[in-house]
Write a structure and sequence with these properties.
The chain contains 15 helices and 17 strands. By secondary structure, it is α+β, with helices and mostly antiparallel strands.
């Protein structure tokens, strides 16, 4: 039992896993990391493919926009190119240079040329919906101006503007400025170009063509962008010309500033780089036009690329998960054929007890499991035999203990009682007969032909005889009352369990208290139990003394130091009751010093059973001290 307790304690220290959970757990630890590695590689490959696809998509967008914008700017620069070869404009500008101060010529020929140039410009404005104003400047002033607006704003000094200086500086190239809110209600841009003398290439003037952003918006809006993608056109200063995105505006001032602080963009055509702008990571693709200096940028948030990658591998992850689930199901099915018989055997082993040892399992295989089942059957058979042997030995042990207890009737009590009988006989005391008769009944009931059980009524009669003797010995020391309820008279009980408590009450409670005391013994039913109570108003005991009596802690003391009391002892009574009925029954004490003691015996209610177990001692006959009792042959044997 001690080794079993140690093993149970060791088993409670850790979690016990069966064979099947261990195998499944081990394979899970092997398969899951492998599948996680495969999924990670697939995910990285998907991200790489998504990134490459996004780069190709962005490069295609910026390349197409670059081509379309280049064609559009070429269309706008047609008029500027024509000016270099228009005869009337060449003549007009030459005449303007000859005038003092470079003003417009006033002669009739120049006025006619002015009208013809104006008609050409009006035709150009009417044929193009995007052009709004066309102006021709001389060296330092405005010469010709045509506009679609009825109200014109003031014209600043051209020589003080950046676009004028830039057009002259580029010498034949075009200069784009804006976007600004110029003459109209919409934002506009301007294309400027120098007009050269067709004869010697000298400077004659500058033509400036204002145009709105309608055509640019058509070019950009015709581009298909993905979710979260943004396409924008920036001028040479990094300012936004036009933007298109699938959602809200992205290229605000903060974003444009962040682009410039991050070195703008890689100005090589088709350049790609990851850039963090305003706390968000983007993949940026850009191209710079050589003619205009504009940059076309495509921004794609990295999160959208990763989301696309995750969406692309989601079906594959589902397939991997299904494969893993199928593997576990098949493995679990396979393990069930191996482990289930072992689990059944384990459950059978848990059911094996001394009272239930004959448990067998059919041997279905000839492998190691079959050998284990055969060994289990042999073990249960051996346990059953040992259990039967142990039960028989315990039964004999109880019989020996009872006989030993019967032999332990206090010889001091017997000696004193016989001495009292001799003394009373010499004095011819009439109580000698009742005392002798009570002693005879006491001995007869104690022997009881070796039987272990008697009725409650006989047990209480034994107590009456004992109290009769003690009351004669200790006259005027106590009076007593023995009460037996009718409901329990024929119930069966282990014999000689009440008298030791009565004896303990007399020697420990009543004898040591001054004055006359009262002792009451009762037997009655309480629910499914029978209770015996022994109550006195004697000296009483403290809790330590009560515990010592119940535990028998004074049994190992030297004989000279042992307290006086029952030879059978309350401890032995308690052990006998619990040995027969179980640990929920036995003796209990309630006592306080100076207030008396209540001792209670609890046993189960058992009706009268096999008569061979019970000794019938006949009617109880009791005489009060001083009165004679009719004699009968109380020493005769009952059943020969």
């Amino acid at each position: 039992m001690e080794m079993k307790g140690k093993n149970e304690k060791k088993g409670k220290k850790g979690i016990r896993l069966g064979i099947k959970p261990k195998i499944l757990l081990f394979l899970t630890f092997v398969i899951v990391p492998f599948m996680a590695l495969i999924s990670g590689l697939i995910y990285q490959n998907s991200v790489r493919r998504s990134t490459h696809a996004q780069i190709a998509h962005a490069e295609s967008i910026v390349s197409n926009m670059d081509t379309n914008i280049d064609s559009y700017i070429s269309e706008l620069s047609v008029l500027a190119n024509e000016c270099n070869y228009n005869y009337y404009l060449q003549q007009y500008l030459r005449a303007a240079r000859k005038e003092e101060g470079g003003g417009a010529p006033k002669d009739a020929e120049s006025l006619g040329e002015n009208e013809m140039i104006g008609a050409l410009i009006e035709t150009y404005l009417q044929n193009r919906s995007d052009t709004t104003v066309i102006s021709i400047y001389g060296k330092d002033n405005l010469l010709i101006r045509r506009s679609i607006y009825s109200v014109e704003g003031t014209e600043p000094d051209p020589e003080g503007t950046d676009w004028y200086r830039e057009a002259v500086y580029r010498y034949g190239g075009i200069c784009l400025s804006g976007p600004d809110k110029m003459t109209g209600a919409d934002r506009e841009m301007a294309l400027s170009s120098m007009i050269r003398n067709s004869e010697d290439g000298a400077f004659l003037g500058v033509i400036r063509v204002n145009f709105n952003l309608n055509r640019l918006s058509e070019i950009v809006d015709n581009t298909t962008v993905d979710a979260d993608e943004t396409v924008g056109i920036l001028n040479e200063k990094g300012e936004l010309i036009y933007e298109k995105s699938s959602g809200h505006r992205i290229l605000n001032r903060a974003m444009l500033k962040a682009l410039r602080e991050a070195d703008g963009l890689d100005k090589r055509n088709g350049s790609y780089r990851p850039v963090e702008l305003c706390g968000v990571k983007y993949h940026v693709t850009s191209v710079t036009q050589p003619v205009t200096g504009w940059r076309i940028v495509d921004l794609q948030p990295r999160e959208s690329i990763l989301r696309e990658a995750r969406n692309s591998i989601l079906p594959m992850e589902v397939v991997v998960l299904l494969i893993f689930s199928v593997i576990l199901i098949l493995l679990n099915t396979l393990l069930n054929h191996v482990v289930d018989p072992i689990v059944t055997l384990q459950k059978k082993m848990k059911l094996v007890t001394l009272d239930n040892a004959r448990l067998e399992m059919p041997v279905q295989t000839n492998d190691e499991l079959g050998m284990l089942v055969r060994n289990f059957n042999q073990m249960t058979d051996r346990i059953d035999k040992l259990s039967s042997q142990l039960i028989e030995e315990q039964k004999k042990k109880r019989q020996y203990e009872l006989r030993a207890l019967q032999a332990q009737i206090n010889p001091h009590f017997l000696y004193n009682t016989l001495d009292s009988i001799i003394w009373m006989a010499e004095l011819q005391d009439p109580d000698v007969v009742p005392m002798t008769e009570a002693l005879a009944r006491l001995m007869r009931l104690a022997l009881n032909k070796g039987r272990e059980f008697i009725t409650v009524e006989d047990e209480m009669n034994y107590v009456r005889n004992y109290l009769l003797i003690q009351s004669m010995r200790y006259q005027d020391k106590f009076d007593y009352q023995v009460v037996t309820d009718e409901a329990v008279r024929n119930c069966i009980t282990v014999k000689l369990i009440v008298q030791p408590l009565v004896e303990n009450s007399i020697y420990h409670g009543i004898k040591e208290k001054r004055g006359k005391c009262h002792l009451e013994v009762r037997a009655f039913r309480s629910g499914a139990d029978v209770l015996f109570t022994v109550q006195d108003d004697g000296k009483g005991m403290d809790a330590e003394t009560c515990a010592r009596i119940l535990t028998g802690s004074g049994r190992n003391e030297k004989k000279g130091n042992r307290e006086k009391g029952s030879g059978i002892g309350v401890f032995n009574v308690n052990e006998r009751i619990q040995l027969e009925y179980g640990p929920s029954y036995g003796v209990s004490y309630q006592s306080e010093p100076g207030k008396g003691t209540l001792a209670t015996i609890r046993i189960p209610y058992v009706g009268k059973r096999n008569s061979s177990l019970v000794c019938d001692v006949g009617e109880h006959r009791e005489a009060s001290p001083g009165k004679s009792v009719p004699k009968d042959n109380i020493f005769a044997e009952e059943d020969k």
